[in-house]
Amino acid sequence: MINKKVNNVQDALQGIQNGMTIMLGGFGLCGIPENSIAELVKKETTNLTCISNNAGVDDFGLGLLLQKRQIKKMISSYVGENAEFERQMLSGELDVELTPQGTLAEKCRAAQSGIPAFFTPAGFGTEVAEGKEVREFNGKMHIMELAYKADFAIVKAWKGDEAGNLIFKGTARNFNASMAGAAKITIAEVEQLLPAGSLDPNEIHIPGILVNRIFQGEKYEKRIEQRTVRKIF
């Protein structure tokens, strides 16, 4: 029986070194690999290139790595609520590659599927297209985008089994699903880790073949970026 379980987050992140490129799942603070990010902070891994939709908030998620100056480059589509991200970007301290959100998702999915490049109309005629090959398809101009090349992908799931099969809950599926298997090594942290064969095959979102290591996380805060409530009159 295939067993990809590792004992803890420390074992899961073995091999991550300074200067590597890492994909991190999540959207805002939804579905982010909280345990893995916290461990990267503790390990003081530096000069990282991080591929993620955004960079969390100032004191949570990838914002913790930004506070410690552990990220040298962010590849993302949204600055969001992270004032430190914005400050480092505008001051030139942080190299930022802003990418249309759909393009970012497709560059992950292409890497997951082994597709080296694809054409998209998004970004044509803007700074996004500078230096990229342009072709016309069906009367519309497209630019060529290369699939990402990452050393590690770290994703977060609701349930997983020891063979690496994953089930995401609700919108936490977001970028996690397209990043699994999109790097040389994929690490999955899960809220519930079950024996292989425990999951209903019809409910599995990501098959274990796309996951190299899996561990059960703990103490998830699951913060909300902004909470808006209606006044009761």
From TrEMBL:
Keyword set for this entry?
Transferase
Cross-referenced InterPro entries: 3-oxoacid_CoA-transf_A (IPR012792), CoA_trans_fam_I (IPR004165), CoA_transf_BS (IPR004163), NagB/RpiA_transferase-like (IPR037171)
Q: Name one GO molecular function term.
A: succinyl-CoA:3-oxo-acid CoA-transferase activity
Organism of derivation:
Flavobacterium fryxellicola
**PROSITE patterns given for it?**
COA_TRANSF_1 (PS01273)
| Highest taxon of the lineage | Bacteria
Q: What is this protein called?
A: Succinyl-CoA--3-ketoacid-CoA transferase
Tell me which stretches of the chain form a coiled coil: none
- Pfam families the UniProt entry points to: CoA_trans
Q: Which Gene3D superfamilies match?
A: Glutaconate Coenzyme A-transferase
